[in-house]
Predict the 3D structure of the following.
Amino acid sequence: MWPTSGYLIEKEGQILMAIKKGYRFPVAHREVFPKGLMLLGPIGPDMEFERPNVQRTDPETGLLQWRGSMTDPDEDKAKRASFDVTFLAAVQPVPSTPELVAGSGIRMIELEGLTAEPRRMGQGEYTYVGYVYRATGIAGDVNSTAAGQKSAPAPTAGQRAESGKAGA
């Protein structure tokens, strides 16, 4: 029996593959972003819509969600080159790489624990298959608890966290 809440890929009347909706494929950073990935500013808490004091948590892992805006220098289409990545981590990821231009906040990063979830994107007759990217961290993260360094505390209820970019 095929899942009713997923994607079915069909060719010449035969179902080739069924993917459960929301499935996250583990992918290697260099395979998805062969020219690297640029972080376009600070990573901030991913806040609930219309609830600015509540940070989102991932329903699968229970970890806090953080959001950062990225640009893929390998993408030819301008509308697809910039996107947000959701970080699933107990503490805020803080990149250790230098800024490309001092004071710009733009830096090259490498994502760790990267997953891609296929989604239909676009509007009307101009839809395409795109991906929602999630990561567990950044290579060389200065807030890595594995490195034994002090972590940035998560905002608590009643504390308004500074958000990098509003996300839905």
In short: Helices lie at 29-32, 78-81. The CA atoms of residues 98 and 107 lie 6 Å apart. The radius of gyration is 18 Å.
